[in-house]
Amino acid sequence: MANVKIIADSTCDLSRELLARYDIQMIPLYIQLDEKSYLDQIQITPPELYEWSDKNGRTPKTAAPGIDVVQGILEKYTKDTELIFFGISEEMSTTCNVVRLVAEDMGYTKLSVIDSKNLSTGIGLQVLRAAELAEQGLAAAEIVSGIESQRDKVRASFVIDTLTYLHRGGRCSAMTALVAGALKLKPRISVLDGKMDVTKKYRGNIQAVIQKYVKDLEPELKEADQARVFITHSGCKDEVVGKVREYLEGLHYFREILVTTAGSVISSHCGPNTLGVLFYAK
Questions:
Q1: Low-confidence residues of the chain, pLDDT below 70?
Q2: pLDDT score of 2
Q3: Residue 114, C-beta contacts closer than 8 angstroms, at least 6 positions apart
Q4: In 10 A of CB 194, how many CB atoms?
Q5: What are the strands of the beta sheet with 36-39, ordered from one edge?
Q6: pLDDT at 165
Q7: Which of 34, 43, 128, 188 has the fewest C-beta atoms under 10 angstroms from its C-beta?
Q8: In sequence order, which residues have a C-beta less than 8 Å from that of residue 249 and are 6 or more positions away?
Q9: What are the start-end ranges of the H helices in 161-205?
């Protein structure tokens, strides 16, 4: 059996339970609040981030993992171990390149870096599939080939409650955020070829919009890979998440429905009350 270790950066938004179940190593990105940096998923929570952002009127800076952090994690494994690293889209971050450079400097020649071309559990779907292939005994090269050949079948989208955080982070204009707020517009953000794009706009309160968004996904959901579907959110009410789960369960289609909460990197850009349904197309 091949000795393969799966590693992912913290933007994959997999829960601690899933990381433990599939023996996945996480590399945290950084969140910077003024002069102090925190490790995503470890040293700061989204509610703390929102409190700071609202108090200061700006979005925290996010950064790729530090060289020392990556070195410390790679040192846990022998240079004979086949390592596969999954990172957030290279269109959004330098994380993949940092890992490549550190591995090269340390002499880790058996490390493969996969640009997920995605974010959040759009990465997580690929990571779990890779972990399952590793459990089946496939070699790293076979796993990388299999994942990359199916990468464009990941369907990742989210409905955002407020554009305030995207505006603070420089990803939309003040006028766009103001108009969206006044008209109660809620954009659907989809990840397409590694980039985020607005693919639809809803109007109304976020609870009703989320239900409409999920209903609109039904044709795609019924043609999806049946293995699993993610509900990933940034602090939505339990009632809202529960209704989405109930809807997905009512399709009697997916073998596994997983609910995860977005970490601080993803939450810092999308803001609270964002929710997405993510899956593989067949």
A1: 1-2, 164-184
A2: 62
A3: 84, 85, 86, 87, 96, 126, 130, 144, 147, 148, 151
A4: 17
A5: 36-39, 30-33, 61-63
A6: 66
A7: 34
A8: 257
A9: 164-168, 174-183
